[in-house]
Amino acid sequence: MTEPYVLETRNLVKEFKGFVAVNDVNLKIQKGHIHALIGPNGAGKTTVFNLLTKFLIPTRGQILYRGEDITPLKSAAIARKGMVRSFQISAVFPHMTALENIRVALQTFEGNSFSFWKSGNCLNKLNERCMELLAAVGLAEFANTTTVELAYGRKRALELATTLAMEPEILLLDEPTQGMGSEDVDRVVELVQTAAQGRTVLMVEHT
């Protein structure tokens, strides 16, 4: 029997030394849809994200992924299951090229991050996939550009590409348009819509 929701929370609570940051949150995320948590600063949106991806441990409540209780799991195990997140700030390696950033993500996903001796064919395979991902976010021409030289909007697009390299079933985006001008916002919104094809997206956005 297919689970009606790909991600669900039940009475999720997070307390910090008596301060209740998240109180009795019940989410039901449908597969193949774009969902958003919208609210002002301090409303607990990012805290919810951190709970879902286990960067924080819930005080009480449950998190279910495809019907499985994943509350006890650690963040790396959840990512391997297909729930991958971005962060409020750009999380890329500034002194690597755009292509090298994608390659690191692909090596991590394939489990060969520490396999230093690889054949040329293997490296070529990774590079081809890197270029596909860069093209998907409009960065193919910047493949050999050092990330620190990219405009902010392009850095966020690169981060999206590294996230897609993990082949997520659920893509969690924490304020993907934060700090952007209107031109970059429109571009990133279009990229999110493209990324959402065939997967579920949950976003946090500030009102």
Automatic annotation (TrEMBL):
Pfam families: ABC_tran. Residues 7-207 form the ABC transporter domain. Coiled coil: none annotated. Keywords: ATP-binding, Nucleotide-binding, Transport. GO terms for molecular function: ATP binding; ATP hydrolysis activity. One of its GO terms (cellular component) is plasma membrane. This is Branched-chain amino acid transport system ATP-binding protein. The lineage of its organism: Bacteria, Pseudomonadati, Pseudomonadota, Gammaproteobacteria, Pseudomonadales.
